[in-house]
Amino acid sequence: MPVSSPPPHWSHRLPSAAEVAELSVPELLMLLARLQRQARLRALEPYGLAVHQGRAFTVIARHTDADRELRLSELAKLLHIAPRSATEVVDGLQDRGLVQRNPSASDRRAIAVQLTPKGRRLAQRMSDELDSHAALPGLAALTDQQQRTLRELLATVAAAQLSDSDS
What we know:
Radius of gyration: 19 Å
Number of helices: 7
Strand content: 5-15%
Helix content: 55-70%
Shape: globular
């Protein structure tokens, strides 16, 4: 199988439509990941959150409420990061007054994370905006059915890749 030439250097510019048409699937995935990250950065900028903080914050908001706690260890699993990294991200969110740590109600040795009132207000403001802006704007060019098909295809590739890395 011939080896494709490396993609153009995009650190200072994005490829043209003609260049995009010539990219391989892995190159397209890398480009889309870069574009999605840029869109996410723009969406989080008004809130002063870095991408990793925004991701952790939205996971905490989604998985906690008055009746549900989220332990730091669970947060690390949900984010697919080391527990120490989850602690560091929570430190930054706590410094901003968005989350607080409490002893777990079910295991006093464990630490649970909850949104503060300030964090809840921010989460409410962010949810609709991030859902609309963080996705790639180019997805609007696809029909709902095409988006579902794309999601299924990407999930299949990701699952196969994860299975290969487990063996």
